[in-house]
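Internal tracking record. Fields below are filled automatically when a chain is submitted to the structure queue. Please do not edit lines marked as system-generated. If the sequence contains nonstandard residues, flag them in the REMARKS field before resubmitting.
Queue: standard
Priority: normal
Entity type: single polypeptide chain
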Amino acid sequence: MKALNPLLISGREVLPLIEGGKGIAASDGASSGAWAAAGGVGTFSGVNADIFNIDGTVMEKEYKGKTRRERQAELIAHAIEGGISQARIAFERACGQGRIHMNILWEMGGSTTILKGILEGAKGKIHGITCGAGMPYQLGEICAAHGVYFHPIVSSARAFNALWKRAYNKVHEWLGSVVYEDPWLAGGHNGLSNTESPNDPQSPMPRVIELRRVMRELGLGQVPIIVAGGLWFLRDWQDWIGNPDLGPIGFQFGTRPLLTQESPIPMAWKKRLLTLKPGDVSLNRFSPTGFYSSAVRNDFLQELYDRSARQVTFSPNEAGALCHRLELSAGNAVFVSEEDKAHAENWMRQGFTTAMRTPDTTLVFVTPERAAMIRSDQAACIGCLSACLFSSWSQGDKGTTGRLPDPRSYCIQKTLQAIAHTDDTENQLMFAGHHAYKFAQDPFYANGFIPTVAQLVSRIESGD
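SYSTEM-GENERATED OUTPUT FOLLOWS
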């Protein structure tokens, strides 16, 4: 195993091992502080971070506003308070070692307000910001104004080049690294472009070499590239270490840090990770963000697949092949193809009697109970995203995307809060990288062993 040389990240030479930031409450001040204390870069999530009561329990967030805009304002206030709290915990746990980063999703609701609020309230305790899920053009400007390094997450050289030309070149001295996240293997939301197929994964090496080529042309040859997505054994990446075509390289681990003693996720989630098999993580496009995402194929995800499969194209009037009348309820009928009419009538006989319209002139068939839950979740929207396919919320002036709410999606805030704070691992969205099945195969985790962060970092550094 090649030795890992220190890498200059966010103003200090550190071990080039980075904890992936993940989303709601899946990485916090305790886990990121421990990772930094081990000599690397710890990253806590700034996505609606937890606030703790005096007794150490997680404070339940209440939303009392009558409108979505009012509830979003409450969400933003909670997020800023939680992010400041987690930054302080991380800084204290790090004991002056490593670096502390915060991860945010650019397309989360109120992202710029939240980022500014946390950086102002936790001044000197956060060294860098990682950010993906969108094109964060303002990221560099905000970070530079607060004396903090920025680390954009991209999945291609083309995406970085666009960010650089439009915005980042103006504050280049605060560019701490560029995170290349593999769009086929990473957990959570993935950066697949419209020209890339989810079923045709590409090798990361040529893509990162191309990213480095573009960066060198821009005078960024010594800015580190952090590779993320699909990492497990570092020995499998030895040809990346010291590779002159790649330049300075660091390694980000998102899934493995979930299974540590300091990891904030519930024990039920940790135990479930130890049982996963190859193929149990699915790349799908149900997220209300519109992005692809990778998650464990449990009952929650399977219901979304099944719901989407019970779908037919319809017309309110006879039109071509859509000439067969389908009775949905008394006085309510649409026209569908002959084949789809047979499918729909069969689904209704099975109890999927409620037909819900989608933005794509289709109907999905669900049970009345599922329909009631979908409508309730849509009505309870708190604006956690800048724009939501599921609820049709938009934080723009109009307050709506102008499209029908999409019943094929789900309330992401609700389910990510539930998976992070309850033992329900079947009926909630469980993000994970595609190599999560290796927990069950890796002898390091034999007999259900859960390491400390320090033990995991040491293990990774050894090559295993």
